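Fill in residues.
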């Protein structure tokens, strides 16, 4: 499964980066003698992953033949308070919860109270989703994800922060229609396991959370676990962190799910170690038989034939192979947390890894599988050397690899995002981070890991060839993307909530959904308002329906049974505006009385020049000389743009290169007096201050080495439309924002590449803001434009 303010989330992030390794707590389990070297190697790997992927905390527990042989927490449980994570830190473990609901069901099956193959309506007659297939749904199908239900119910779904009762959640499924005939297709459904939990609640006449505590958690000795927040453990709950492709990072929401049996377990590494011990003991815990060994064995067999060989669902458990060994377990992802629980039942080895960063299951799986391989090696008496660690691609290689690659009609794009190279796969929308490990370029990111090399040739090769998912890709030239279909214009945008947005965007001519932050799904039109998801992914086989009001205006999109309301965003050309914290005249008077911060050290003498002197096609649209800016008030008395001479010369070179492609530079702002920076800071609300500079440190605009700009067409003279507007204080301003259209993103990236080629770097929150490489050698300036202009008129020409 998957509010403090954005600023609060950023503060936590900075604290994490300051120190990722607090002192160890006594609440960890020291490694036993055979596993001390394993623990040392895993500690090295975990530390690297936390730094490389910016993960606040990780907890791990290893189990050998029912004994927890090592359990430890790393990083911070609460970075702001500098509370270290331990093996007893509490985490939300998302869909790992499903295994406990499944165990509860199987206990009742053993007692003859439930029949896995009886129609669900036998136990809850009011469960009646529309079923055009005529075949009844069974408990076995619910737990093996073969019931054909939608992924999420209309009420109590993953996005619903109203915390409705489980009964409301299950009854809302009566408003839905089955996607597939029961028993025919594997389709992962949170709703299905919620129904299984509701059966436990109904037949035992008590809330499912209490029933599972009494029948499963306490018999397993899991006294630090609960289905829902427990006040006794609140002080040990880790802070969860959210992130997005484009760099957004904020504190995770904490609301409770209405579909709790599928994802509401709060627990820690040590308690999950006890659960693993129970599995490896053939269903025993503390000398008691909690579940029969043959029942567990049945759960570890494919529930349906023909599910493929790579992985399949048994009853609840995901069944995979690890180097030929049967691997049973489950992953979990809920807002701000990711968990992997894996066991090798034949070898009686198990591991659990938990992180406090959203959707980092690939990292947790990498650590878990490294642990299991090391444990197997310990068993054989030959622990291998520590695996090599990965690192960013060299800067030159990262830049050179950028572009489009093709294998027949299948396309992948490589994009350099501030030194991090991301591979996007057009056919399934997946995003893959590339790293170098032992001289090979591999997939290694928050969302995926594979040791198989992707880049076949050396860094010196001029025509790199990529190998990805069994196909070979070669570079090709990508032209300017075509405009999207006009019918998509009013559909493209953002939907949903601050904590979980749905983006409708256009990619290579197709309307595409980016859902649950990380899954791109190309949509197939069924009608003007109905689009079908592909037959893979989170919402396989479901439909996206565009919702409109009586005037035809788009008000939302319904995915399966869940309605995502339309979010307001500025229209192209619309000026973004805020209400200043204080009146602008007051801000100006205060700023003019203030003094810039004192600086020490060597600085070059200022040499501000008019940027329009360096290329005739550099045009000006100085918004702060007008009311067309975020404060709706003029900051400057004239529309001028000045920069330090080397920066202005580099800007001229960028302009010259862009002109060859038919584009000119349109400047919105360049040198900015310090007092204006102070006005911006003092007038901007705290939750938007990441878009303005702190005057206590000055800005690169104040130093004459920053420029705000966009592109215009030389042919038409009109500015190009980008993914978001100038000065817009929203995620759409981020330089790697994934929404909008292919052409808008291409134009934005063209500008960035042209500026980077001349020594500029883009600001992480604004696609239009570029800093020149030498900004740090110039002082903070507070000259008015008139003073600068006066100095320029005195220069000899």
């Amino acid at each position: 499964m998957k509010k403090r303010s954005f600023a609060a989330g950023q503060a936590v992030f900075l604290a994490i980066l300051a120190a990722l390794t607090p002192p160890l707590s006594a609440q960890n389990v020291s490694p036993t003698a055979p596993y001390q070297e394993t623990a040392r190697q895993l500690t090295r790997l975990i530390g690297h992953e936390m730094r490389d992927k910016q993960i606040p905390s990780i907890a791990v527990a290893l189990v050998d033949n029912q004994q927890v042989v090592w359990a430890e927490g790393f990083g911070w449980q609460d970075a702001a308070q500098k509370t270290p994570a331990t093996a007893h830190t509490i985490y939300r473990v998302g869909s790992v919860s499903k295994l406990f609901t499944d165990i509860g069901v199987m206990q009742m099956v053993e007692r003859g109270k439930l029949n896995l193959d009886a129609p669900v309506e036998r136990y809850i007659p009011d469960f009646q989703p529309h079923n055009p297939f005529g075949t009844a749904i069974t408990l076995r199908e619910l737990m093996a994800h073969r019931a054909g239900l939608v992924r999420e119910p209309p009420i109590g779904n993953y996005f619903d922060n109203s915390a409705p009762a489980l009964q409301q959640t299950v009854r809302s499924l009566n408003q839905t229609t089955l996607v597939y005939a029961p028993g025919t297709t594997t389709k992962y459904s949170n709703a299905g396991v919620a129904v299984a939990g509701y059966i436990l609640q109904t037949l035992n006449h008590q809330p499912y959370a209490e029933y599972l505590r009494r029948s499963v958690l306490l018999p397993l000795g899991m006294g630090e676990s609960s289905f829902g927040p427990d006040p006794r453990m609140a002080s040990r709950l880790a802070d969860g962190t959210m992130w997005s492709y484009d760099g957004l990072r904020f504190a995770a929401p904490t609301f409770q799910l209405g579909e709790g049996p599928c994802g509401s377990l709060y627990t820690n590494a040590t308690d999950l170690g006890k659960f693993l011990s129970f599995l490896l003991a053939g269903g025993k815990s503390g000398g008691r038989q909690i579940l029969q060994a043959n029942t567990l064995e049945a759960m570890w067999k494919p529930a349906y034939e023909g599910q493929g060989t790579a992985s399949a669902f048994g009853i609840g458990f995901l069944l995979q192979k690890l180097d030929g060994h049967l691997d049973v377990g489950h992953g979990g992802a809920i807002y701000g947390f990711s968990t992997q629980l894996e066991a090798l039942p034949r070898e009686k080895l198990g591991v659990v890894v938990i992180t406090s960063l959203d959707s980092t299951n690939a990292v947790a799986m990498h650590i878990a599988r490294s642990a299991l391989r090391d444990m197997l090696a310990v068993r054989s008496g030959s622990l291998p050397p520590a695996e090599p660690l990965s690192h960013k691609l060299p800067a030159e290689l990262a830049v050179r690899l950028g572009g489009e690659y093709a294998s027949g009609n299948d396309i992948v794009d490589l994009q350099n995002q501030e030194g991090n190279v991301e591979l996007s796969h057009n056919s399934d929308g997946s995003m893959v981070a590339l790293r170098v490990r032992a001289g090979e370029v591999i997939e290694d990111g928050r969302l995926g890991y594979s040791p198989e090399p992707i880049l076949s040739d050396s860094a010196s090769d001029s025509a790199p060839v990529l190998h990805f998912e069994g196909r070979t890709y070669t570079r090709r030239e990508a032209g300017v993307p075509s405009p999207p279909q006009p019918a998509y214009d009013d559909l493209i945008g953002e939907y949903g909530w601050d904590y979980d947005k749905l983006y409708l965007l256009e990619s290579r001519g197709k309307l595409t959904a980016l859902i649950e932050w990380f899954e791109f799904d190309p949509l197939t039109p069924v009608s003007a308002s109905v689009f079908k998801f592909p037959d893979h992914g989170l919402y396989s086989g479901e439909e996206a329906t565009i919702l409109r009001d009586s005037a035809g205006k788009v008000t939302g999109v319904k995915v399966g049974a869940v309605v995502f309301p339309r979010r307001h965003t500025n229209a192209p050309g619309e000026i973004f505006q805020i209400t200043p914290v204080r009146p602008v005249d007051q801000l100006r008077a205060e700023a003019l009385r203030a003094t810039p911060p004192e600086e020490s050290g060597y600085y070059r003498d200022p040499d501000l020049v008019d940027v329009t002197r360096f290329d005739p096609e550099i045009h000006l649209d100085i918004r702060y000389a007008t009311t067309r800016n975020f404060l709706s008030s003029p900051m400057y008395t004239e529309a001028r743009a000045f920069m330090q001479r080397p920066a202005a010369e580099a800007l001229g070179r960028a302009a010259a290169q862009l002109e060859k492609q038919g584009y000119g530079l349109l400047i919105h702002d360049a040198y900015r007096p310090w007092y204006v920076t102070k006005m911006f800071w003092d007038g901007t609300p705290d939750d938007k201050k990441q878009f303005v500079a702190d005057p206590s440190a000055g800005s690169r605009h104040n130093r004459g080495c920053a420029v705000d700009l966009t592109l215009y067409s030389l042919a038409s003279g009109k500015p190009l439309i980008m993914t978001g507007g100038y000065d817009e204080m929203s995620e759409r301003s981020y330089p790697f924002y994934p929404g909008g259209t292919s052409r808008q993103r291409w134009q934005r990236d063209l500008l960035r590449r042209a500026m980077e080629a001349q020594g500029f770097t883009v600001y992480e929150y604004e696609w239009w803001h570029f800093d020149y490489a030498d900004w740090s050698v110039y002082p903070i300036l507070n000259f008015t434009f008139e003073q600068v202009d006066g100095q320029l008129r005195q220069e000899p020409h």
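Residues 16 and 79 are 6 Å apart (CA to CA).
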